[in-house]
Amino acid sequence: MRNFTYIRATSLEDAVQGIQDHPQATVIAGGTNLIDRLKGYLEPSSHLIDISRLQMQQIESLSQGGLRIGALASNTAVADHPIIRRDYPLLSRAILSGASQQIRNVATVGGNLLQRTRCPYFSDPAFPCNKRHPGSGCSASTGINRLHAIFGASDHCVAVHPSDFCVALAALDAVVEAQGLSGKREIPITEFHRLPGNTPEQDTNLQPGELITSVILPPLVFAKSGVYLKLRDRTSYSFALVSVATAMEVRDHQIQAVRIALGGVAHKPWRAVAAEQFLRNKPATVDSFKQASELALQEAKPLEHNGFKIEMAKRAIERALMASVQTGGQE
Ligand SMILES: Cc1cc2nc3c(=O)[nH]c(=O)nc-3n(C[C@H](O)[C@H](O)[C@H](O)COP(=O)(O)OP(=O)(O)OC[C@H]3O[C@@H](n4cnc5c(N)ncnc54)[C@H](O)[C@@H]3O)c2cc1C
């Protein structure tokens, strides 16, 4: 493991200033991803600023509806929160589908948003990787790329974002609140993570020195119909090959509103916008869901070993939409 210095931040301002003052600084929250990266020589930071004791654990209802979840709320606290379980069940299910109880007890909201890809070539310093060493090449694009992207990849990177939580956040149109030296700003979740382009070393649009302070869940009545379906090689302790978060509002058998987000398919959680548009004002039937799933995968570009993800994603979308109708979308 690389040597590093460690300090514990006493305030948010202190942490933000600390990042500015040390070019090699990074913050540590639960440490479940960062420490692994340090051990694997994947992380260049040599100065850790511990933010875990700052007061950002709260989950609070907002006067205009919705919830604000503090960046240091643990994954377990979010998944178990009674309002989240009642009003945003897909978020709770997405979290519970990931990692283990012990990891979720320590892992935080901010850390989950910023966890790095599980591309095996990124994790193995023996292989070139543009995300780890910009300009060195992408081993996955010509290597074993079964786990990789079918949407939005570039010649420089075909990695996928590993989070389950973020897929549910994308379906819910959540907003990330961040704080930097120049103040606070809000970033819609669908603009928070980025596609690799020719700078795959950047996972997100967070500016250097900015910290995540919270995530806003807007009020969304039909989120109660939300479903999270995760397909993977093992049924526990495994990242998604493909996952789907859906929520739907159905009135008089017609779909009024629908959200579909996919995980395991791109460098960011992937909203199936064309499929959502197609489904509006259509009957909530198997046939509609089948057509929507075809549309959702129309632009997919498989790599040598991951063509199976296309059929898998289509079937997952159909199953999740059907489950959304059965679990509350139907009035
Ligand atoms: C064995 C294992 C299995 C897992 N399985 C899954 C899974 O199936 N699905 C899934 O979604 N996740 C999974 N995870 C990932 C897990 O959810 C993340 O490791 C965890 O959420 C990271 O949170 P943390 O607080 O520990 O982050 P840390 O490790 O402390 O930090 C991660 C990154 O986020 C940055 N960071 C943290 N907080 C902030 C903040 N507030 N502002 C700015 N930057 C910040 C850190 O600098 C660091 O770069 C798994 C992890 C492990 C170890």
Explain what you see:
This protein is of the alpha+beta class and 331 residues long. Helix content is 31%, strand content 20%. It is built from 13 helices and twelve strands. The protein has helices at residues 12-21, 34-39, 75-80, 82-87, 89-96, 101-106, 109-114, 139-142, 165-171, 189-192, 273-279, 286-297, 308-329, and strands at 5-8, 25-28, 47-50, 59-61, 67-70, 175-180, 183-188, 211-217, 227-231, 242-251, 254-263, 270-271. Strand 6 (175-180) and strand 7 form a beta hairpin. The chain is globular and about 60 Å long. The protein starts with a strand and ends with a helix. The mean pLDDT is 96. Flavin-adenine dinucleotide binds at residues 26-34, 71, 75, 98-99, 103, 106-108, 110-112, 114-115, 162-165, 211-212, 239.
Q: What structural keywords apply?
A:
globular, 331 residues, 4-stranded antiparallel sheet, binds flavin-adenine dinucleotide, single chain, 5-stranded antiparallel sheet, alpha+beta
